[in-house]
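Render this sequence as a predicted structure.
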Amino acid sequence: MAKKILSKSTAKKAISKLGVTGIIIVLIIAITVVALAFSPVGKAAADFIKKNYLTKVEVLTSNFNPITIGDAKLKVHFIDVNQGDAIYIELPDGKDMLIDGGSKTPVAVRTEFVDYIANLKGSETKLDYLVVTHPDTDHYNMLKPILETYEIKNIYYHDVEKNNTYKEYMGLFDVEGATLHKTGPNATSGVWKTIKYEDATNGYTINMYSIGYDTLNTENPDEYDADESNGMSIMMSIKYNNRKIMLTGDAIVETEEWLMPFLSDTYDCDVLKVGHHGSSSSTSAEFLDKIKPEYAIISSDNGKEHDHPRPTVMNRLYERGIVTYSTNHHGHIVLEIDEDGEFGFRTQNVKMVQNNTLPRDPRYIAP
């Protein structure tokens, strides 16, 4: 059907009916829209609407290109604990590692976390490595049943008396048979600890980096603040079959700046665990450009209480085409890597990846 075009006389009648007052109102609205579009505030709003990651969540069938991998030799479980971090790693040589185990959540989440670990370990009663990235409760306050249930071989943590709650946990860390690895290097120490397993097909290296305590809060070194707590996060780089995984705890921009000189200029990361639940205090553009991740994982709650992840961070990921999975969207997320270096992600919830704006395989394989 052809579009109906108003005649000049019809248009004149419409304008006449509108009246002078109506015309003025229309003009004011038009001028306001144009002004906002070209003003800094208007441009920022337009950019946000354009880049808002929530608009980039696509249906499962869009860009869906599942891959097939063999028996995974390395598995990294990003456990959904709402606001907090909990990462369980099954290493190729049969050892395992738990990085953090905390959340500000109901008892039901604590129970699900403990059950998740128990289901993976089965009858196994030992845990080879426990790492507490920093002394914030949403990274350690669900670890008591883990410490009581399993024989811990090695524990890595900050020897800092932040408060009575963390002091209590430091007492629990001193369990029979556990080797304690306490952080405390200064900014020149570089790699703090290296865990290495050398084998023709299953070899891997885990480098831990710790800036230590009292190295960021230089103005008031005797005071303990949130930036200092997050900033001291133990960061880890896992290398297996030419694949690299970067885990950052709640590391802030200053910690990222400290770390970057210790990484090679050719450092190329496959998967990044985004720092501080997607807070704008972490994951700087410079850090992303240095490590060049292709995929990102975010552990956070539904965003209502802490506003995580922040749109500014999601936009940085979006602008670089970094395919993103998040626990508040996908539930539990498992990264699997086989002996040929092929890798993929399994998710609890069948939802499309976020920020999948470039022609890249999202490597989603199954829930």
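Summary. The first strand starts at residue 72 and ends at 78. Residues 8-38 form the longest helix (31 residues).
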